[in-house]
Amino acid sequence: MVAEDAVLLREGLVGLLERVGHRVVAAVGDADALVEAVRAERPDLIVTDVRMPPSLGDDGLRAAVGLREEFPGLPVLVLSQYVERSYALRLLDSGGGAGVGYLLKERVGAVAEFMAAVERVAAGGTAVDPEVVLQLVRLRQDPLERLSAREREVLGLIAEGRSNANLAAQLFISEAAVNKHIGNIFAKLDLPVDTDGHRRVLAVLAYLRA
Fold first, then answer.
1. What is the pTM of this model?
2. Which is more confidently placed, 181 or 198?
């Protein structure tokens, strides 16, 4: 289900999702219509804007968080024009952080990355925009000073939900080197080492937003 008040972007999202094989059961332009449509259609995933009518405030986000409370486990991918940390934190705190994503709208243009985020969130994973990760990192500047520049880079990619193999390819290093960096990060930040990628992302995000 797509919720976006800008008609061109809404139609663009629908076309993109359908082109790669997904079925869009509804496309709406305001938060009230989103709530009604979800109750009627029970979609597998919501892709919604943060700012929408009727108030043009954070109606889309508030509707999404409320729907996740009403329908536990409902995956939600939120799109935003700007990095707004409070919005990201409210979303990540909903439903225990499973099946949530927060991306800047400009990421939609990177089709492969956007579709990977859609599929990750629909499967119950987490997808967070790199710029949002940087904003969250700045909230915990002092502890993160213990990390090297490379470790901070790896931390940002972990928080985006990247696998170790993807990290290795992105950074042009071996998976053994990735494992070493991750071990150092978790040790320096006092995070539990966990082989479950989803719980690993949530642990990092929980630390960054604490």
1. 0.68
2. 181
